[in-house]
Write a structure and sequence with these properties.
Elements: E1 2-9, H1 14-27, E2 30-34, E3 39-44, H2 51-60, E4 64-66
Antiparallel strand pairs: 1-3, 1-4, 2-3
Length: 67
Amino acid sequence: MEKQVLKVNGMSCNHCKMSIENALKALGVNPSVDLGTKTVTVEFDSQKVSLEQVISEIEDQGYEVVR
């Protein structure tokens, strides 16, 4: 399992949190969204899902991942 902490701009409420969590869970990723620090910690199997797929899914939800 790989673990990454991503800085994400645009998250401000529980709807934002749920949107990201649901999208990432559908990919098989275990997310933890922290609205206070504007971060998303993700744990995933890099043999099944790439970090780029995780980032793309967050961005598809309308948020900006700071790289």
